Amino acid sequence: MENQAALAAHFEGSRSHLRAVAFRMLGTTHEADDALQEAWLRASHADSTGIANVAGWLTTIVGRVCLDMLRSRKRAREELTEATELERVAPQEPALGPEDEAALANSVGLALLVVLDTLGPAERVAFVLHDLFAVPFDDIAAIVQRSAVAAKKLASRARHRVHGIPAAPAADIARHRAIVHAFLTASRSGDLDGLLAVLAPDVVRRADASALRGDAHALEVRGAREVAEETRTNADRARFARPILVNGQVGAVIAPHGRLLLVLALTIEGDRIAVIDVIHDPARLRQLRLNVVDAKAA
């Protein structure tokens, strides 16, 4: 680079790409913007003379900043008390944030953001950079301070955790996903007939006490009409719901802007949902294996 002005121009020209990288690593727009600010400070104080691929160099700097932030986040979580951890793992439903964050989270995939949050810092960086942005492993190795072979293993391990292994044949998974999609679509619109079409007549809805809002809902509700009527009252939550694999079976995650709120573990019998288990308790959430149903529709 010839001068600071040229570097600034390159940074601004790459800002959209760099912000997308940071958002997928960190999961929130405000953290992504903080990462870009720190990345600019590092870049502006570094010697960029002779760098041929400035966009790649800036991506590497953003990757290092995000890795530092993910490691700091992990340390902070480990230091939380049990009471504070309850709030972290199963937070109160947040108010709507900026519209651009909602749109960005939706475009990335709410379920994918939830699953990415279960990865270790180095795994998340390796997976995001390689699988989502095609960054070479040699460049990733420099960021995570490991060999290229080790960086490749990190990405492979993360990929396995993101996609998982379904506990049913592909045809059954596809059929179940269609049923769950129909259930969520009807839930969002408050479509009573649509809900009744996918709920078994004797469906059971169970829930953690902390998952229920107010005293109006029982820990267990039985019967298609009763469950459907209750579901219609939760349309505001349903708009943040997406299909996800829960312990290898198709279920759903409710994640406003990609931040985990509830998991719906579903039992499907035939073409109807027979059991809905609403999970909010942090101890139970930690025991779940969550994977995206597929990369494109997460």
Automatic annotation (TrEMBL):
Name of one Pfam family that matches: Sigma70_r2
RNA polymerase sigma-70 region domain: residues covered: 15-75
Domain RNA polymerase sigma factor 70 region 4 type: 111-159
Source organism superkingdom: Bacteria
Record note on quaternary structure: Interacts transiently with the RNA polymerase catalytic core formed by RpoA, RpoB, RpoC and RpoZ (2 alpha, 1 beta, 1 beta' and 1 omega subunit) to form the RNA polymerase holoenzyme that can initiate transcription.
Protein name: Sigma-70 family RNA polymerase sigma factor
Biological source species: Pendulispora albinea
